[in-house]
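hey so u asked for the seq, here:
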Amino acid sequence: APDEVAPLEAAMRPPPIPTTSRDSAVALRERGNAAFRGGDLVEAEQLFLAALHLDETDAKASANLSAIYLKRKNYVDTFSYAAAAMRLPHPRDA
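ran it, structure tokens below
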């Protein structure tokens, strides 16, 4: 029966997160935005962190993490990510 469980577990896992380019970081951030709007802060946080891992200059992902931590009343991380977002270049500044 162990062989019967493995396919079920594999089917229940979320699809792998792409980790290859800046476009992937934007896609991750957009998925994080959808999770945030849906109220899934854990999923949104993971997606925004993954986006920042791929593109550490993504000010929007950093600002979005700040919003998550504000909702959780984690003010230290709220400030840290908001401050980081303010230091990063914004597309309109380019």
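Residues 1-5 have pLDDT under 50 and may be disordered. The two ends are 58 Å apart (CA to CA).
lmk if thats what u needed
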